TrEMBL record, chain A:
GO terms for cellular component: ciliary tip; cytoplasm; cytoplasmic dynein complex; microtubule. Its main location: cytoplasm. Keywords: Cytoplasm, Cytoskeleton, Dynein, Microtubule, Motor protein, Transport. Belongs to the GAMAD family. GO terms for molecular function: dynein intermediate chain binding. This is Dynein light chain roadblock. The lineage of its organism: Eukaryota, Metazoa, Chordata, Craniata, Vertebrata.
Automatic annotation (TrEMBL), chain B:
PANTHER family: DYNEIN AXONEMAL INTERMEDIATE CHAIN 3, DYNEIN INTERMEDIATE CHAIN. It comes from Rhinopithecus bieti. Gene3D superfamilies: YVTN repeat-like/Quinoprotein amine dehydrogenase. Keywords: Coiled coil, Cytoplasm, Repeat, WD repeat. One of its GO terms (cellular component) is inner dynein arm. This is Dynein axonemal intermediate chain 3. It is found in: Cytoplasm. One of its GO terms (molecular function) is Arp2/3 complex binding. Acts as a negative regulator of cell migration, invasion, and metastasis downstream of p53/TP53, through inhibition of Arp2/3 complex-mediated actin polymerization. Via its association with the multisubunit axonemal dynein complex, is potentially involved in the regulation of cilia function. May play a role in osteogenesis of dental tissue-derived mesenchymal stem cells. InterPro entries: Dynein_IC, WD40/YVTN_repeat-like_dom_sf, WD40_repeat_dom_sf, WD40_rpt. Residues 1-16 have a biased composition (Basic residues). Interacts with ACTR2; this interaction reduces binding of the Arp2/3 complex to the VCA domain of nucleation promoting factors. Part of the multisubunit axonemal dynein complex formed at least of two heavy chains and a number of intermediate and light chains. Found in a associated with the catalytic heavy chain DNAH2, the intermediate chain DNAI4, and the light chain DYNLT1. One of its GO terms (biological process) is positive regulation of osteoblast differentiation. Residues 1-27 are annotated as: Disordered.
Amino acid sequence: MTAEVEETLKRIQSHKGVIGTMVVNAEGIPIRTTLDNSTTVQYAGLLHHLTMKAKSTVRDIDPQNDLTFLRIRSKKHEIMVAPDKEYLLIVIQNPCE
Amino acid sequence: MAPKQKKKSSRRKKSPKPILAASEDMEPVNMESMGHPEIYPLVLTTKTQEIFNCRIDEDITDEQPYKLINKEDIFEDLRNRAAVSDFHPVKKIVQEYPGNELLLVYDKDFKYGLNFYLIGTEEGKENYLNPPEVSEEQEEYKEYIPEDVYIYKPPVSKPWVSLGSEKEIEEASVTESTKQITYMISRKRSEFGAPIKFSDQNASSVKDAYIECTAYPDKNFTLKQLEKDVGMQVIPQIKDISTQTKWTYPKNATTQYYPREFSEEEKETLKQSKPLVDFLNNASISVEIALQQNEITNTFIDDWKHLAEEEGTFGDKTDTHLKEYQSFTDLHSPTEKMITCVSWHPTIYGLIAVSVAVRLSFEDRVHFSGKLLLQPSLILFWSFSDPIHPQLMLESPDDIFCFKFCPSDPNIIAGGCINGQIVMWDITTHADRIENVKAGGSRSKKATLKPMFLLEPESNKEAMYIRHCAVSSIENGHKKVITDIHWLSDTFEINRMGSVFENRSGICCQLVTCSHNMFWDIRPQKPLTPQTTEKKKEENIEIPFDVPSTFLHLDLSWKPLTKVRLSKGETSLDHCPTKISLKEDHLLCKTQDKVLAQSKTAKAEEMNPYHNLESGMPNLLKPIDDFCTKFFVGTEEGEVIYTDWKMEKDPETGRLMPKKPVSLHTIHDGIVHTIQRSPFYDDIILTVGGWNVAIWKESVMTGPLLQSCCAPKRYTSGHWSLTRPGVFYIGREDGYIDIWDLLEKTHEPAQSQNICITMITCIKPWIFSSKQQFIAIADYYGTLHILEIPWTLSRPSTNEMTSINHYFEREVKHLEYVEQRKKIREQEKKEMEQEMAKKKVKIYQKSKEQMEAELKMDYESYLELEKTVLINLGLIKVTEKGSYSDVM
C-alpha cells in the first residue's frame, strides 16, 4: 500500500517543472510532502480554505455540481489542487522553462 | 415838413423819365429814414475839398467839422463841373435853399453813409450850430420818442367776473369731513404707577375674546385617485443592532499559534489507509493530465509581446552615433597641455574633474624644468553650466597622472603625481560652491554671452585655487610616475601583512597605487618613540592658511602601509605594473553588516569622520577569512598578471615574500593601459593595450576569452559601457572611438566614430538619468569632449544579459575545448613523430641494400663499357663473330 502511494507521488514529482507535491487531509493538516515544513504548512492552510470556498461557490450556483479540480496560474508557477471528500492533493509546477 | 413832402411827390412824378436826363432830375437822398430829413449825405472828392477849402484834417478838423459854404460858390462849381461836381445830387436843395450859406458837415464816422453831409434847411443849420452838442442829442432823443405819446392812467377797479376757478380751489382744499370728537379721560391720581398684576384667562370663557377659523372639507378640492404607481424591491433581511461600549484606549494584543500536525505514526497509518490510496489513484490521473498540458504548451504566453522589443524609445532608434554635447578646454594655460585622467563627480550632476599635464617628453621636461616649476599643475573642475571657466582648480606639486574621488566622501580626492608622490585634497569648504553651480546655471548663461576679456575681473566667477592637503613622503614613496590609484572599499582593511580585516570606521581609508603596487592608509600610523622627536622638528613648518588640516598628520611624512613587488621569477627584475583591478567586494558576511550599521549610527553625530582621523588605527579588528586577495595587473610590457597581494613567509629565509603570480600572459604588444572589471559581472575583465583588446574571466586562466586581432591603429584607452553588458568603448590614437558590441560582431568594432584629431587619452561614461547618458572623452591636446550616448547604445535589449552570459560560457567552453584539443594534438603529434621516426629508420635500411645493388649494377655496366671502348679502339680484337654480335 505504501509502496503504491510512494510510487504515485514519485511519478508526479518527477514530471518536468514540478516544484513540490503534498497530500493534505480534510482539515488542512499535511500528511505527505516534498517541501519543507513551514512552506507546507502555509500552503496547506491557505489552499484548504480556498478549496472550500471554491467548492461552496460551485455548489451555490448549482447544487448538483461539484468541484473536481482547481488550478491557480500565477506569474511564477501553477498550483494544482485535486480535492476529495477527505483529502487534498496539491502540486506546484513551474510551467515555463 | 409838408412842403418837402410835396416836393417829393412832385419829384416822384418825374422819376420815370429816362436815365440820361435823370441826372438833373435825380432826387437828393436825405436822411429822413433816420429822422433827419434835412440832412443830405454827400461825397466830396479831394478836388471838391480843395475848391471849397474843406479838406479833411486841414480845414475841417474834429473841433470844427463843418463849413459854411456860399450858395454862389456851389452854383459856380456846378456850372464849372456840371455832372462831375459833387454837389450835383443836391443841386435842387441848394437852389431852393433860402439862406445864403449852407452848412456842410464832415461825417467822420460815416453816420449817414458818406463822408460829408449837407444840411438843407436853415433850421437844421441853426440847430447844428447853436448849440451844437446838446441840441443835437436832445434832438436825437426827441426823434426816438414815438409819436403816440402815452399818458399814464391809474387802473380803475371793475367788478369781478367769475370764470370757474372757484370750483377748482374748492376741490383742492382740504376740509374736515366730520366734526372732530374730543374725549376726556380721567383717572385717579393714586392709581398711577401702581403695581400691575397679570392673570391667565381662558379664551373660550370670555366672550368674543378670539375668533376662530375652523377647517372644513371643501368639496372643490377632493380628487379621487384612480391609478397608483408603486415599486417594490426585495432585500435580504437586515438587522441593525448597535451597542454602546466603553472605549478606553487601544491595546496591542497578540496571539501565538502553531499549526496542527500529525505525528509520524499517524502519518504512517494514514498512508496505509485504503481511502488515501483510492483518492490518490483518482486524483493523480487528473493531476497528470494537467501537468502534461503545461509541459506541452504554455497557453498564457502572448507571442507577439515576446517577439517585440521593449516599448517606448526616446529618440530615433536608428540613431547610433554619439552626439556632441559640450566640450571643455582650458584657455588660460600658457603651455600645451594634455588631459591625463578624467573623473565624474559621484554625486553632483554635471560636474567633471580633469587632470592636465604638460605635453612634453622626458627630455623636454628636464630641459624646461625651470619653467615648469612656475606653472601650477592643476586638476580642473568643469561644470556643464560654464564651459569657459573651471569651477575649481586643485593645485598639486607636479603633474597629476591619475586621481580618484573617495567613494565614501566625494570631497576627498587622491591623486598620483608624475614624480611618484600621492597628493590629497580636501574640498569640503568649497563643496557648497560647486554644489550651487547647477543653481546658478541661469546666471552664468547670461555671462557667457559677453566676450571673454570682459569676464576676467568678475569676482564670483573666479575659480578658486585650492592647495593640496597632504603629499606623501618622497623617500618612501614611488620612484616612478604613478599610473593608477584606487580607493579600497570601506568594507575591509589591510594590515601590514596584507591580510584583510574588517573596516569598523565605515569609510574608505586606504588607497592602492600602482607603479610598484603600494598600499597606503590615510590614518596616522603609530610612530615609534625614537622617531617622534625628529618628526616634531620637521612638522614645525608653517601651513598656508586656507589649507584644511584634515591630512596634516600625513603631509610629507606619509609612508605606505605595505608594498607588493612583482618579481619576474628567477631574475631580480620586477614587473612594471601600470594598472590594477581589484575585486569589488561583494562578499560580506551578515555579521559584518550589523557591525558596520552600529558603527555608522554611532558616528552619525560626528561631523565628518575624515576630520577625526587622528585617532589612529584601531588594534583589534576581526580578520575576514576567505577574502579573495587576488587581483589583476597590467604591465608596461603588455603582460596581464593575476596575482595575490597577501604576503607569505618564505620557508627558507623566513622573510615575508610576495606570492608568485598565479598566471601571466603576454597578450598585448604595448603597454597595458586599461584593466577594468565589467560593471555587470564580477569576473569578466577587459584589458586594452598596444594594438588589441582582450576579455578575461577570472577563474579561467588558460587564456583570454576574447582576443581581438591587431587593429590598424593603436588603442589608447578603453571602458565598459555602464548599462549594456556587451558594449565597450575603445579610443584610438587617431581620435576615433571604436564601439564594440559583443552581440553584433566579435571580430571587429561595431561602430567607429571620429571625435577629435588627436590621440584619445581617457574615456569615462556616466549615467545621469534613465534617459541621459554621457561619455567624457579626453584627448591629447587638452580638450575634454562630452558626448551624449544615443538610445540604442544605452538601453540594453531584453535578453542582453542572458545572451552575453551564454556568449561567455561558450567562450569558456571553447577555451576548454582548445585546451583539450591541445592535449589531443600533443598526443597526436607525439604519435606522428613516432611514426615519422619509424619511417625514417626503415627508409634508411632499405636504401643501404639498394645502394649496394646499384653499385653492383654500375660496376657491371662499367665493365661492359670498358670492353666496348677497348674493342673500338682496337686494343682488344674481336675474336669471335659471336662476340661481335654480342658487341652489337
